[in-house]
Structures are given as structure tokens and as C-alpha cells.
Amino acid sequence: MRKGGGKDEAAIIREESLPSVDSDELEPRFRAVTGGGERRGIRLEGIYWDGLGRMSEAGGISIGDLVSNIAAEMPETGNLTSLLRVLSFKWALSRLDAVEDLASLTNLNAVLQASPTPAVVLTQERGIKLFNDAFLKMLRHRLPLIDDVQQTARTLRLSIDTQIQEVLSVLSVNRGKTLNTGFKIGLGSQSLTGQINLALAPTHEALMLIGYLSVY
């Protein structure tokens, strides 16, 4: 499938997801490190030095001692520089896997269900992605004419007084902050208004909001 400018969909996705790389980032940097009583001169690209720095910090040792420990486990025919690159990348991937597991929709739903306050997760299209049992109970009490509360909750559009893109922008700049605004749920002749506290949803899968209904 082709899109404008002659670029196929895969090419567009690659351009949007690939980070930019400066030319100096491609140049190996020489460093002399000392560990285990031995001094070694090593040339690695900066990103691998950064990875080794994080590994050593996590392990509570110096980069020199880390390199020494890795060298001690290396086969005689091995290449230390290549091994350092591979281990640095594998360590980063293992940390990424751990973070993505914690920031999954499954864990986000558990956070939602643990709240005694009615809570929802909103997509950028203002759809309700997730909701908790307290939200269902609130709907049953405040909108009694609903026949199937759970199915209705899945298809509801919850409108907020502040544009959702504006909320996402403000919270993306002000990490760790929340934003309070008004909300409205309308269903036929029934409606429900109140206040909702919004924060960026702790998930990597998409940019979403987690909202706790504070007044309703």
C-alpha cells in the first residue's frame, strides 16, 4: 500500500519510530578503565559506554570492575569489545522488558480496580478503555434506566470540559502532576456531570489518561 510522496506504510512507520542519530554518536570513543588490578584501553560507541555506566551503577561497582568481571568470564577466543556491546544491549533489553511488563494494560487495570473511587482510562479519542467496579456501581446508582450497565460502560463517551489533547500536552510537560476538570456523561434523557482528576496513564502501550471521578 502506498501513501503520499511515494512512501509505503512500513517506511512511514520506520521514520516515525526511529530515533535520530548524530554523526558523532557513530564514532567509537577510547577510554582507559582500571579494574581487578588491570588497566584496559577500550573503544566503544558512546551509547554502549552509557549502557555500561548504567550497568555498573545498578551493580554498585565501577565501570572498570564491571569490565574486569566480564573479561574474566570471556572465552579465550572471545572479543571483549564485542562482548561488552552485546551485554550492554541485552541488559538494556531486559530492563525494557521489566518496565513494559509493569506498564502493561493488565497492571493498569489492577491499579484501577484497587481504587474505591470510580475511575476510568480514556483514550485520545475520548473512548473509555478501562473502568473499575466502582464506576459501574456509580452508573447503576446515578443512571438507573440503563439495562446493561457493563456493556453501556464499554461504549460510553465521557466528555470533559478541557480538550483531551490539551490535557495530554499539559500533563506531558508537567510530569507527575494532575489536572482537574469537569466531565459529563449523557445517555438518552439521563445525564451525569461532575469533576474528574486526570493524570497520564502509567502504560507504554499508548498515550492515555487515567481519571478519578471526584465529584458526581
Fold blueprint:
Layout: H1 9-17, E1 29-35, E2 38-44, H2 46-59, H3 63-73, H4 80-102, H5 105-113, E3 119-122, E4 128-131, H6 133-142, H7 149-155, E5 159-160, H8 164-173, E6 179-187, E7 190-200, E8 209-215
Antiparallel strand pairs: 1-2, 3-4, 3-8, 5-6, 6-7, 7-8
Biased composition (Basic and acidic residues): 1-17
InterPro entries: RHH_dom (IPR027373), RHH_sf (IPR038268)
Protein name: Aryl-sulfate sulfotransferase
Strand order across the biggest sheet? 4-3-8-7-6-5
User: Would you identify the CATH H-level superfamily of the largest domain?
Assistant: PAS domain
* SSE order, one letter for each helix or strand: HEEHHHHEEHHEHEEE
Would you give the CATH topology of the largest domain? Beta-Lactamase
Protein name: Aryl-sulfate sulfotransferase
InterPro entries: RHH_dom (IPR027373), RHH_sf (IPR038268)
Pfam families: RHH_4 (PF13467)
Keywords: Transferase
Give a verbal description of the structure.
With 216 residues, this protein is α+β, with helices and mostly antiparallel strands. It folds into two domains: 20-101, protein bp1543 (Ribbon-helix-helix fold), CATH 1.10.3990; 105-215, Beta-Lactamase, CATH 3.30.450.20. Helices cover 43% and strands 24% of the residues. The strands form two sheets. Strands 4-3-8-7-6-5 form a six-stranded antiparallel beta sheet. Strands 1-2 form a two-stranded antiparallel ribbon. Helix 2 crosses helix 3 (63-73) and helix 2 crosses helix 4. The longest helix has 23 residues, at 80-102. The two termini are 48 Å apart. GO terms for molecular function: transferase activity.
